[in-house]
Predict the 3D structure of the following.
Amino acid sequence: MLTARKVMQVSPIIPVISVQSVEESLRLAEALVLGGVSIFEITLRTSCALDAIKAVAHEFPEAMTGAGTVLNADQFKRVEDMGARFAISPGLTDELAVFQNSIPLLPGVATASEIMQGLSLGYDAFKLFPANIVGGVEALKAFGAPFKDVVFCPTGGVNAANAKEYLALENVLCVGGSWIVPSKLIQEQNFKEITRITQEALLALQ
Ligand code: 3PG
């Protein structure tokens, strides 16, 4: 069974993607795969996101296509129907926690109480969001003491300069971020440069 932890182990970087068209999403997915990243978090922030998830999941069956910015039960069901293999949310609500036998959900947390609420609902893998603002590396180190078995994907303000520091932490399995898929390059359709940034980012983590 696919779990959130397994999703987090596909790649050290989960690219947070916002696309304006299905065509754009396919070219972006191709650029990322060429660069060495075969997991995609396509956020529900644009009107084509559901179609993009469906198309990318279909065209890249060996990659792991998921949905981001999943805020409620209706969106969760829709992304699952479109073929998303995981869902990421900036937070956690009772209506999202109902989906325990569906695709894995990586819910967002920012505080100890939210981690405890998540644990009580059956989650032990979280997105830390917005990571840099809620304490970054130091917060994750501090959470490691009381929450020994909890793992995180810090997201929000992660970039080439700090990704390695996050990934060096025992309780961090991967990081999420948009820095390897800059919207400017997507607008310019400079997918070659996205491949290059992706390769560079992975190399820098070694
Ligand atoms: C997210 O939704 O996960 C964040 O907006 C991504 O944050 P970043 O753009 O700072 O990487």
In short: The first strand starts at residue 13 and ends at 17. The pocket of 3-phosphoglyceric acid is lined by residues 16, 68, 155-158, 176-179 (CB under 6 Å).
